[in-house]
Amino acid sequence: MRVINLIESVTRRAGWCGAVLIFPLIGALVYEVFSRYALGRPTMWAFEISYMVMGAIFMLGMADTLRVGQHVTVDILSLQLGDRSNAFVRLAGYALLLPVLGWLVWELSKYALAAFESNERSGRSAWNPVIWPVFTVWFVGFLLLVLQVVAEVLKSLAIILGRSSGGEGGGKG
Fold first, then answer.
1. Structure pTM?
2. Residue 72 — left, alpha, or beta (φ > 0 → left; ψ -120 to 50 → alpha)?
3. Bridge partners, 121 (sequence order)
4. How many H-runs (helices) and E-runs (strands) does the chain carry?
5. What is the distance between the alpha carbons of residues 155 and 166, in angstroms, rounded to a whole number?
6. Which of 40, 55, 57, 60 has the most beta carbons within 10 angstroms of its beta carbon?
């Protein structure tokens, strides 16, 4: 299905971007350790950069993790059921999850916009950076998760209707 392939292409790229962020995270932490212990001058920014980048890694990877079927699952029931029955169970779970995720995305969009408009600062360190980029990444991460859940719903429906699932993750989630 084209829609599934398009959504999964976007979530795959977002997951890749999240994975690449490990390099600046490592760089910042290595520099902090060197600066603190070799130079005797800890940075003002390493703590904030580390939690912001780690959060971005997590947020950008959520949807891709669902795409490849790597979220934690309880297989006791699913191993006993056939493909169509599993698709029904997943569909029911996604039907419960989607409204909550939709509400969360809506609220995060308002939160990110308010932080941008007010120039909100983190208040966690002497560096005290603006926080709207972090909230924006949270919004984008959960928006991508909503899109991937929609793709998983479509894959489950395809299985129920006897068509190909059309995705890499096989609808596991």
1. 0.89
2. beta
3. 130
4. 6, 0
5. 7
6. 60
